[in-house]
Amino acid sequence: MKISSGTVRLIIPAASLTLLLAAVFYMQPRAMSYTGLNLLFNLAVPIALATVAQMLIMAVNDLDLSMGTFVSFCACVTATFLQASPAIGVLIFLGAIAAYAAIGVVIHLRELPSIVVTLGMSFVWGGLAVLMLPSPGGEAPGWARWLMTSRPPFVPMAIVASIVIALVTHFLIMRSSVGVLIRGVGGNVRSVERAGWSVIRLRAGTYALAGFFAVLSGIALVGLTTSADANIALRYTLLSIAGVILGGGEFVGGKVSPIGAVIGALTLTLAGSFLSFMRISPDWQIGAQGAILIVVLALRLFLNRLEKREKSR
Amino acid sequence: MNEVTARREVVAARGIKVTFGAVKALDGADLVIHAGECVGLVGHNGAGKSTIVNVINGGLAPHAGEVHYGGNGGQHGISAARASGVRCVFQELSLCPNLTVNENARIMHAELAGWNWRVRALALVERQLQDIFPGHGIDCDSTIDDLSIAERQMVEIAISFAGLRDKPKLVILDEPTSSLDAGLAAQLMAYIRRFVGEGGSVLLISHILGEILSTSDRIVVMKDGRVVADRAASAFSTRSLVEAMGNVVREQEWLRSTDKRGGEPVLSMPPRRGQGLAFQAHRGEMIGLAGLGGHGQTEMLLDLYLSRNSNWWPARRKEIAFVAGDRGLNGTFPLWSILKNLSIASLGELSSRSLVDRGQEGMLGDGWKKRIEIRTPDMENRILSLSGGNQQKVLFARALVTTARIVLMDDPMRGVDVGTKQEVYDILRAEAASGRTFIWYSTEMDEIRLCDRVYVFREGAIVAELAGDEISEKNVLEASFSGGEAA
Amino acid sequence: MNTARLLFSRPWIWSFAATTVVWVVTVVFTGGASSLGLSQAALTFAAFSVIVGIGQMFVITLGPGNIDLSVPATMTLSGTLALKLMDVQDSMIAVGLLLSILLGLAVGIGNYVLIKLLRIPPIIATLSMSFIIQSTAIWANRGLRIKPPDILASFTTSNLFGIPNIAIVALVLSAVAWVLLEKTIYGRWISAIGQSTFAARMTGIPVDGTRLATYVLCAVLASICGYLLASFSGGAALNMGAEYLLMSIAVVVIGGTAVAGGNSNIPGIWGASLFMFLVVSMLNTYGFGAGFRLILTGLIIIAVILVAGGRQSNR
After folding, report:
1. What is the ipTM, given to two decimal places?
2. pLDDT greater at residue C303 or residue B480
3. Residue B210 and which of A109, A231, B284, B393 are 20 to 30 A apart at CA?
4. CB under 8 Å, gap of 24 or more: what pairs does B418-427 form?
5. H or E stretch at C43
6. What gap in Å lies between CA B333 and CA B107, rounded to an integer?
7. Which residues of C touch A112 (CB under 8 A)?
8. Alpha-carbon torsion (C170, C176, C178, C180), positive or negative
9. Is C213 an 8 Å CB contact of chain B?
10. Widest CA span in chain A
């Protein structure tokens, strides 16, 4: 049977997630319950949304180093304006998404390196967040809180939400005709341009879409934590990049996988819980995360090699 | 004459001038293409073929002159050209490698959108592929990355000829057969005739003059940015075409030296994957690697090179040098001057205590500039200011400057004009006579005939070794095709 | 015409022009009283950015995707371990420095081993590495804050002819780096690799060796910087490297090094480092809060990039 390379790219992250989950269940059988799963994957939803946002940027061969500060900014807006006067909150979000589109335009027009422009933007978003919430505070809008803490039957919210995110983005990026154009820009800009498409619009649209998912990530995060602060999601920049890579995405060439990205985000979330089950000293928690990242990537390399050997036969 | 003007013009470009800096790429060129004809376009590198193609497809705005589509003037640009039914298959493959075949069709055809577009795209490409290349065996759901180069070229051609609502009016094919074997190329040429018969037009650019002569209705010859001849194809022969391009075909006066296979081989390699013949090279030999393109010649050159060249430690003495065929991909360093591009492989000899001696480097550059006639006022100019042929000369010089006694060449004359080729051949002869060994993969029979000994490749292995007078087109072809389907 | 060409061919001039403007504005605002102190502070703090920036620049020169995210963790661990080893004894200063350099060597090799063995992009490899280094630093940093040896502390905080010693150290390192980049075979090699790795390999450049050396160089410079910074600030802190992650990248780019690789320059790093420090202190003197300071810093980075332009055209 012939398996497409896209499917193969999914097998590896799915296998790593399963393996990690099995290890967690083995060590802590009580985690194998509704509440247990909910606790394990509690923080996965905002990370998954941020990872999808990062994946969109990476699909057009760019990298967003402001993801963490932007999600923090969105969290602050959610906990303040969106909660107090929803209309203004929505306007701010629309403005932020427009800003993302504008960044895309600027990067494209001046052929600027995205890393640097988003690096600059990370200061801007961080500054705005500090202005809004100089100290931790604010309050989650009731509906966001309700959405994130609702308890659907049989399967915990975090997992339901992750599956919905994965399916929606899979349809959007992998199946829809617009998604093809976005990935086409990553694969071969010149050919998309020669076919008569406006790459600048495509890039702007992709950035706006990424901004939209990042906004959702900020709302989801506040829905879970009930309050926000300016540094709440700084880790998300690196987490989201790592999530995309773990999920089989690549830095260049428009090779991305939304389902993989969500799985990558789940894996990263689980890794945190796994470490606390292992009773690893807090000193070494970060280090162990690094080690897990390395192990998973080594596994991926090994499987890739295996696949290549199969192919050459 | 009347008959020609009466036919509808699909594209008319008149008095086109384009300059890149000081270089006049087009100097008042005219090119008119009518409905229902196949126009062959030939010319040397730098004659302006690619530039006029880019003007016609809207990618490049001319600095003077006018382009009309279907008789109407006015707008110019990629969208205007596409709206007028102009499609282009470029010399370098321009599909998105990360997408599937049908997704690439979606990129090329804006009308493939909305619900169920995948099914329609699939049907469209499959029908068109079947039409042009019957029995192609390409799975349209596979990613371009997973296809061979020939398959990619077939897909690109099919997508360009396909039309959902309306068929394209003009398809520009820039070297469409460069990766196709003879059978596929013949299928394509037959399809072009059918397409033209149904009222479409094709602009065909190819270095294979046989293709041009047999397929085109009319042939346009370009030279130095102008059109120098524009006549019916029947009025040309291979010889008169070459003459019109401005270079007289030189007689091959290459006295093959006596057999040099005495003594120890300087380079050898066991049969690849345990199949076929072993490879050996001796001092002063010029060895050709022949066979159909993509049958393992480049891989062997890479193996030979990489196995003798550490990736971790600098070599004390270079014993082997490599001349790239794909300049843009693995040859030039675009940010650098000509001089730095020339000297990069031999910095060890130009420096003391790892500090590069600029004076010595400059002297070396001046010497080679004269010797191989690099056409530039100053070796400090950017490498990209040179024409393709001159860039290639610099790459040759880069290898020849080194102390390496063995030079590997990966089809380096691809896309180089005839004049430059002759100059380089002369240098190669002189260098081989002085004891250098050349291992030369070439897709052109004329070049293979220059070699002392030839290894013919098929399916990744060496299947024949020809020496001296055995080297002939017939023998090479026989070895490349023999066995199985080609017999 | 000629001046314009010179400006565009030497992108670092922009960063110095901006630096001068900001300096003048700040000095004028404070009535000129602080010009010497401001300059000395700027030189001192810029020096730290310069040292890590040079390392990062060499790595970025290697081409798209090459970046070292382990810089801050390496700085922290180096400062922590060196101070612990020296244990306030003046006689151990050289040993501490040696330890720092060895640590840099180890980190650099570790980074490249990950990149090479796992074939993962440097950004992820160095990130994973930095997690491990950071953990080691947390573990090593337990207990009392250890002060640097007196001689070292006074060396890092004093001046020679009005120029901070730290700045002199950075200047010497920059000079060495400049020779390395402009005059040596190694400099040619990294530029070639940055333009086209495959072409570089096919001209006989030992690509892996050169890249390894570059990652090691970057880690060693980060280590040395951590050693100096910990001594300068009277002890190592766990977050002492944090701001240098973005800073090291920002100064390289603002300094006019091509992010696409293959083209880099050292003077620009000085201009950019001074500029970054002066901007912050200017905003401080104008009494802006942290939020405004961040926003303006970000906008200035973007503005500088916009003015300095992106990829240079090939013609």
Report:
1. 0.84
2. C303
3. B393
4. B418/B44, B418/B245, B418/B247, B419/B44, B419/B247, B419/B389, B420/B45, B420/B389, B420/B390, B420/B392, B420/B393, B422/B250, B423/B372, B423/B373, B423/B393, B424/B372, B424/B392, B424/B393, B424/B396, B425/B450, B427/B371, B427/B372, B427/B396, B427/B400
5. helix C35-61
6. 31
7. 305-306, 310
8. negative
9. no
10. 63
- The pLDDT tens digits for A79-93 are 999 988 999 999 999
**Mean pLDDT calculated for residue range C285-293:** 80
Q: How far apart are CA B213 and CA B238, in angstroms?
A: 8
- Start-to-end CA distance of chain C, whole Å, equals 17
Residues of B in contact with A184 (CB under 8 A): 96, 99, 103-104, 107
Sorted by sequence, the CB contacts under 8 Å of residue B151 that are 6+ apart come out as: B136, B138
Verify whether the Cβ–Cβ distance C291 to A127 is below 8 Å.
yes
Taking only the tens place, the pLDDT of each residue in B425-481 is: 888 888 888 888 899 888 777 788 888 888 888 777 888 888 887 887 667 767 776
Test the B interface: residue of A58, A176, A183, A188 with most B CBs within 10 Å: A188
DSSP state of B385: G
Q: Which of A128, A141, A122, A127 is nearest to A227 (CA)?
A: A141
Dihedral pair phi/psi, residue B18, rounded to 5°: -135, 130
Return the structure tokens found at B214. Answer: 């047999």
> Cα separation of A177 and B117, whole Å?
7
Query: Which 3 state secondary structure label does DSSP give A103?
Result: helix
Say if residue B321 is exposed, middle or buried (CB neighbours under 10 Å; 0-12, 13-18, 19+).
buried
Q: What is d(CA A43, CA A31) in angstroms, rounded to the nearest whole number?
A: 15
Contacts of A63 in chain C (CB under 8 A): 123
- Residue B70: which pLDDT band, with cuts at 50, 70 and 90? confident
Q: Is A175 on the interface with B (CB under 8 A)?
A: yes
pLDDT tens per residue, range B234-258: 888 877 877 777 644 444 445 555 5
DSSP C148: P
> What is the token pair recorded at A239?
């987490």
Q: Which helix (H) or strand (E) holds B149?
A: helix B149-161
Instruction: With H, G, I as helix, E, B as strand and everything else as coil, classify residue B33.
Output: strand
Residue labelled with tokens 């080194």: B402
The pTM score is 0.78
Query: In angstroms, what CA-CA distances link A190 with B93, C64, C135?
Result: 11, 19, 45
Amino acid at B156: E
Burial (CB count within 10 angstroms: exposed 0-12, middle 13-18, buried 19+), residue C279: buried
Burial per residue of B141-176, b for 16 or more beta-carbon CB atoms within 10 angstroms, e otherwise: ebbbbebeebbbbbbbbbbbbbbeeeebbbbbbbbb
The string of DSSP letters for B202-252 reads EEEE-S-HHHHHHH-SEEEEEETTEEEEEEEGGG--HHHHHHHHT-PPPP-
Domains of chain A from N-terminus onward: 5-305 (1.10.3470)
What would the two tokens of residue A91 be? Answer: 């306007």
CB B401 within 8 A of CB B364: yes
